[in-house]
Amino acid sequence: MHRSADYSKLNPRMNCCNCSKKSKCTRKCFPVPLTKPQVKRILESFDRNGDGRLSKQELKSALYYMGSHFPSWRAAQALNRADGNDDGYISEGEMDDLVEYVWQCGYTVS
User: Fold this and answer.
1) Which of 43, 46, 47, 55 is nearest to 89 (CA)?
2) Of 33, 32, 29, 27, nearest to 104 (Cα)?
3) CB proximity list for 73: less than 8 A, separation 6 or greater
4) CA dihedral (10, 1, 73, 41) positive or negative
C-alpha cells in the first residue's frame, strides 16, 4: 500500500493503487505487510448484512479482496480454526482468532 493510500481504493486483485498490471505500474509500489488492525477493519467491512458475524461467503470475499489465490480454501481453513462454537459463522468473540490466522497468512499491499 502506498502509505498515504486508503485500502478501499486498491485494485483488489493486484494490491496496487490504480494499476491493472504490476509490470506497467507508474508508481513505485513496495509490499507492506498488513497490520492486525488493518486486517480486522477489512474483515469487518465485509459483513454485508450487518449482523456482526462473518459467513463463509463474506469471509471468502474478504480474502479475495486481500489477494488470496485460493479464497474458498482459505475461508474454509479460517472457519475451521476460528469458529469456536461450530455454527458456521465468525462472531465478534471469535474475530480475534480469525484476525490472528489471516494476519499470519502474510497478506501485503503495495
Assistant:
1) 55
2) 33
3) none
4) negative
